[in-house]
Design a protein that fits this description.
By secondary structure, the chain is mainly beta. 10% of the residues lie in helices and 28% in strands. The protein has 6 helices and 24 strands.
């Protein structure tokens, strides 16, 4: 096979429907249903924001419901919603559309009527601050479904040097949780003789040919990022071997540009391997030490461009820590670790209007940020449901290292997901 030069990463188009709809049920999460208005945000992967960006549809522009009944929506908006899905490769029948329903996430609350003629529902006392889930039986012909991103496997940060604290009260050790350890993926599929699962690192490189189906000499992990089978932080993937194709199409999606190619005898496709949901581990209350958070030592380190973060990118962390920051000069409250949980080296931020950072967890979390310019930013509950959200103006000044602490308000600890996403405005 002839030598082919590598193509620089870019972000010119995306394919969303394959991540949203599949032959099995899927869900789009619309968190924080407050005062009858669903506030859009994504959860885990690329689903809600990306789809709305692709089809230029804003549910926030829809009328706010004021009663306990479903609020009718202009039928033209529904028609436009379905047409936009079809434009991205989904073919929806009337039956498929009627399978979409809204649910407020509470087991005792009724589901609303079908999406035809109704896309939002009114809130009552039980729906205040709840999650709305848009569920569907699936789209025939869809090629994949979004799956929660596995926890990143970063380089461990050096242990922080802290002032000795009183010994915490012993707690029973939790039972060990089974962990699926997969071997690192090979560079390409030429040496593979059977379908397999393997692990990809963060920020893969190389060259790929094709879209969704790739030539066997394509770099496996870069193809997984291009196909949406993993985020830029890496993850476990499943490789399915295929045969000869006469044409491989090049596209730009998820921050990666693939090349076109003609006939090639062997090929492969990719899918994410879903990791089990983390279970909260009881933690003792932290003991005050008098120390403050410091960015002198970075946390788990990543690199990301503004283009890559246009796809919402999640990082799994443990919220909380031993340091009470109420007496620190960072303008915040709550408990954090001394070293940031994650540090991200940003580039290409001048092309975007803002960087959104939000947290989702089962405990009351806080968010502390030190920007590339050295500014401290703190938030507690702006996202609702006791979860923080920060929007930072984006410019060339945002290029550099940003350090992020996910703390807890009252000293409890729990698994959390912090998500970064760039926006044009």
């Amino acid at each position: 096979m002839a030598h082919r030069a590598a193509t620089a990463s870019g972000l010119h188009s995306r394919i969303y429907c394959q991540h949203l709809l599949s032959p099995r049920p899927g869900a789009v999460i619309f968190p924080n249903f407050v005062r009858g208005r669903p506030i859009l945000t994504s959860k885990g992967m690329l689903v809600s924001h990306q789809l709305l960006k692709a089809i230029a549809l804003s549910l926030l522009a829809l009328p706010v419901a004021t009663s306990a009944l479903a609020q009718d929506v202009d039928p033209d908006r529904v028609t436009g919603f379905v047409s936009a899905l079809e434009a991205h490769g989904c073919r929806l029948s009337q039956t498929d559309v009627q399978d979409f329903v809204l649910s407020n996430g509470f087991g005792d609350a009724r589901e609303t009527q079908a999406i035809v003629g109704s896309l939002i529902a009114a809130g009552d006392a039980r729906t205040e601050g709840a999650d709305l889930v848009l569920e569907t039986a699936g789209c025939p012909g869809g090629t994949g479904a979004a799956t929660p991103a596995p926890a990143p496997v970063p380089v461990p940060a050096p242990a922080p040097v802290a002032t000795p604290a009183p010994a915490p009260v012993p707690v029973p050790a939790p039972a060990p949780q089974p962990v699926q350890a997969l071997a690192q993926c090979p560079a390409n599929a030429l040496s593979l003789s059977a379908n397999t699962q393997c692990s990809c690192p963060a920020n893969p490189g190389g060259t790929i040919w094709g879209s969704n189906v790739y030539t066997a000499d394509s770099n496996i992990c870069l193809a997984a990022l291009h196909a949406g089978a993993m985020p830029i932080t890496g993850g476990n993937i499943s490789i399915t071997l295929g045969g000869r194709l006469e044409t491989f199409t090049g596209t730009a999606q998820n921050g990666v540009t693939s090349n076109a190619w003609g006939a090639y005898d062997t090929s492969f496709t990719l899918a994410a391997v879903q990791a089990p949901a983390p279970q909260p581990i009881p933690q003792p209350l932290p003991q005050a030490t008098g120390s403050c958070p410091s960015f002198a030592v970075p946390g788990d380190f990543y690199a990301a461009t503004g283009d890559q973060l246009y796809s919402p990118t999640p990082f799994t962390v443990q919220a909380g820590g031993p340091l009470d920051i109420s007496g620190c000069q960072v303008g915040g409250i709550g408990f954090v670790t001394e070293v940031p949980q994650i540090s991200v080296n940003l580039s290409g931020m001048e092309a975007y209007g803002r960087l959104e950072i939000e947290v989702e967890a089962q405990c009351d979390t806080t968010l502390l940020i030190n920007t590339p310019t050295g500014q401290w930013v703190f938030d507690d509950d702006s996202r609702g449901n006791f979860q923080p959200l920060v929007n930072l103006p984006s410019s060339a000044a945002m290029n550099g290292r940003i350090d992020i602490w996910v703390g807890s308000y009252n000293g409890s600890a729990c698994p959390a997901t912090v998500e970064l996403e760039t926006w044009n405005s």
